[in-house]
């Protein structure tokens, strides 16, 4: 048995050269450049490297964790050493999630190309693997880990060690029985193919078999009619069930004989259930499907706070890479804090702190390159302007020259807007959000500057100002005409009251709120906040006290229709899980259409959802059946998890709820719960459902293992798999929950 990646690598010159190895410089800074010996392992999946002085110590990473290879000086670190190493020697490996990049310098341009081409081929091959190939690779990886003496065989002691590594605490007698059944050669060791048989016996899904048996008359196959019945009764598919049943057989049934007879075996049935079609998130709603022609104010917009920061807000690193990562995650509103820099060049950093500084010019260049790689819909550039008049003019010039035609400079069709344009109208455009001299109507007749007191965020939350900032604000700031003229649909204004906004505000005027101010307005005047947000944009940002870059719960602000709920993207946690969950739908384009009752003049009060027209509450029943190949959280030898599942509902106040299963002792490989959790959901259009798996600990806090967050309206009912994500939001291979979901209208008073 050889891994799919290993077979792929055999006939490729670049990959064979990578297996032979090369000395590459690993670069962390202008002063830290160390030579390391890199080579591709025999599995064609793992890259190994070590220092010549490290003895037996070494590091490894999987090609599956690499997102992209950048060629040349395409990172801040490699740019900083451009005078020392030419671009044709340099390349950057960009990892998935929040892991730092790996910047490398080769000895020659030809060697750099070998590694650039080779890693790109491996990434492409990994992404193009089908489910069977992914499983084969996974089995191969485990075999290699357990085969300690590398003789290509495993004795029973090695198998016992492997089971511990795989999170299984199996009865020794039962494990020996499986081992003996797989040992066809009766040699006392499992060779490659025998290990595959052992693994298949180990992973037989009794839970899936039971469901299969419920609908199979002969217990061996599902006929087309029986599969149709399953899709109708359990998966709630309705009229399309017959057509879909045939499609599923064609797509997932491995047996040509079964296919010929229009039937599905247990293997095909299981392949369907673990596929995207069998997942909890409806794949049709993953694609871009919403109406994108409504005003901007009718959408939730994926938004980042202090986008430039990679870490905390006191000493964290400012980086262009942070903008790239946010934009790759579908972010459509990024923030730039601008301050006067040396040599007439504005800089970006968190003012009055020890965070590092980057050039405004470099941020805008990065935005120009990456703004529309993931989504074609508009990007809002939220400008926190602390610059002098001179450097504001420099900013305006840089925005104009670098962004070119992508920068929106005037209203569409040169008309004074009565309502905001749509994401569709603004495709491929960057919108500047900042203070503006006068309004769109008057921009041709205004003076060259205006005096204002503080920046947008400072104005919204004066308590967050430092003593130094207060002193500077006393001098009063001026805004340049050149910069002002670039603000069209996102003019920052002070918020007075909802009454004032209703009578005086223009649709292109928007306000920023600190999380505490926004929360208070949401609680005291929620219905008015909803109405306000149907016409105008609102931006909410974290408290200045969150110096650790922690986040607040965005759901409370989505409940009142706030569009730009800005979060610290660099900080993993439940808040970013909710953000990723909400924006996972609609093609991950960064825009999600708000429910219709938040887009019109109907009075929706999130505190009293039962008062709205057409109100119906739903019962959500989730049978948590089993888990598959859950990740280890403690990598000490012999450590096995005790998993439990918690289901959390986020939505309006009445919908906030959480329940959890009991924990299963010593089994992260195939734990079985068969426990049902029930919830009542009053506003499903706003609800998010978060599934969390934790390792139970009776003496301390439980350890996080994985999670998945899904909008309630995107849930597929029936028997579904939930494919778990890590804390960073990246997929955990083959790790899932198996659930049965039922959604029904509530017919009795609760």
Automatic annotation (TrEMBL):
Its EC number is 3.1.4.11. SUPFAM superfamilies: C2 domain (Calcium/lipid-binding domain, CaLB), EF-hand, PH domain-like, PLC-like phosphodiesterases. It holds the Pfam family PI-PLC-Y. GO terms for cellular component: endoplasmic reticulum; nucleus; plasma membrane. Its main location: cytoplasm. Ca(2+) 3 binds at residues 306, 335, 337, 384. Residues 444-464 are annotated as: Disordered. Substrate binds at residues 433, 435, 512, 539. GO terms for biological process: intracellular signal transduction; lipid catabolic process. Its cofactor is Ca(2+). Ca(2+) 4 binds at residues 640, 642, 666. Residues 16-124 form the PH domain. This is Phosphoinositide phospholipase C. It comes from Oncorhynchus kisutch (Coho salmon).
